């Protein structure tokens, strides 16, 4: 099948003690890393199953020290892997878009993270459709915490605006919309999703996708049940 767009996954190696530390407690450092690893693996499965999508992963961290590092390494063979670069998260996002465009020229990009393992191939495909069909030059998916989970761009070079947006704040989504508007892009809306910051978030997200690795990793934390 001809690739119509790139799905860019921005990911960090889930190293115990450095991954999802806000899940501790009740999770141990190892369990938190297992949850992060499961989220990444489920996300990669969804991306690789999306019709017309060319998977790209902007990676940072040491997979050799990560939970499920070998399994993640095998899964990454299905994607183009690029290294994250930049002085802060906004710059790394901007550079990841630019590097994706340099490898896969002329393709729109839908960027997501590894904190929304409930994404499905259907959702990812539908999210980029307004861009592919010229309805919008950009789309933005808000997260419940005030940030955003997905950004689609017809021209990924417009992601340079992210270098000036403070990330991981309650108004990051609003600031991102303003930054896009400043370069003439009125971003179309995507569905709001919950990303995974706390154990409460993890339980809610696992309930939305109860059959994946992520839900199993959440259930393993102190025998918690996912409703």
List the helices and strands and how they pair.
Layout: E1 5-12, H1 29-48, E2 53-60, H2 69-76, E3 80-83, H3 89-103, E4 109-112, H4 121-132, E5 138-142, E6 148-153, H5 172-182, E7 188-189, H6 199-208, H7 213-219
Helix pairs in contact: 1-2, 1-7, 6-7
Low-confidence stretches: none
The backbone outline, from C-alpha atoms, is: globular
Averaging pLDDT over every residue, what do you get?
A: 94
Strand content: 15-25%
Overall helicity: 25-40%
Major beta-sheet overview: 7 strands, mixed
Q: Compute the separation of the termini in Å.
A: 38 Å
The topology string of helices and strands comes to EHEHEHEHEEHEHH
Helix-strand category: alpha/beta
Q: What descriptive keywords fit this protein?
A:
seven-stranded mixed sheet; globular; single chain; 227 residues; alpha/beta
Quick summary of this structure?
This protein is an alpha/beta fold and 227 residues long.
Your description of this structure?
This protein is of the alpha/beta class and 227 residues long. Helix content is 37%, strand content 16%. The protein contains seven helices and seven strands. A seven-stranded mixed β-sheet has the order 3-2-1-4-6-5-7, sandwiched between helices. Strand 5 and strand 6 form a beta hairpin. Helix 1 runs parallel beside helix 2, helix 1 runs antiparallel to helix 7 and helix 6 crosses helix 7. The longest helix is centred in the N-terminal third of the chain and has 20 residues. The termini are far apart. The mean pLDDT is 94.
């Amino acid at each position: 099948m001809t690739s119509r767009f790139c799905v860019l996954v921005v990911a960090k190696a889930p190293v115990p003690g450095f991954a999802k530390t806000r899940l501790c407690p009740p999770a141990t450092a190892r369990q938190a890393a297992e949850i992060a690893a499961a989220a990444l693996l489920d996300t990669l499965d969804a991306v690789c199953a999306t019709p017309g999508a060319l998977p790209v992963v902007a990676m940072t961290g040491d997979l050799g020290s990560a939970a499920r590092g070998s399994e993640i390494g095998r899964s990454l063979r299905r994607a183009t892997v690029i290294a994250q670069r930049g002085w802060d998260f906004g710059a790394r996002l901007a550079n990841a878009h630019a590097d994706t465009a340099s490898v896969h020229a002329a393709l729109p990009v839908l960027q997501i993270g590894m904190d929304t393992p409930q994404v499905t191939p259907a959702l990812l495909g539908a999210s980029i459709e307004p861009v592919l069909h010229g309805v919008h030059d950009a789309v933005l998916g808000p997260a419940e915490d005030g940030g955003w989970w997905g950004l689609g761009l017809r021209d990924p070079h417009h992601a340079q605006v992210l270098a000036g947006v403070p990330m991981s704040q309650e108004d990051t989504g609003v600031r991102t919309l303003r930054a896009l508007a400043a370069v003439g892009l009125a971003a179309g809306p995507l569905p709001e999703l919950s990303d995974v910051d706390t154990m409460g978030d993890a339980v809610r997200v696992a309930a939305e996708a109860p059959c994946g690795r992520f839900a199993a990793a959440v259930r393993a934390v102190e025998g918690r049940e996912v409703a």
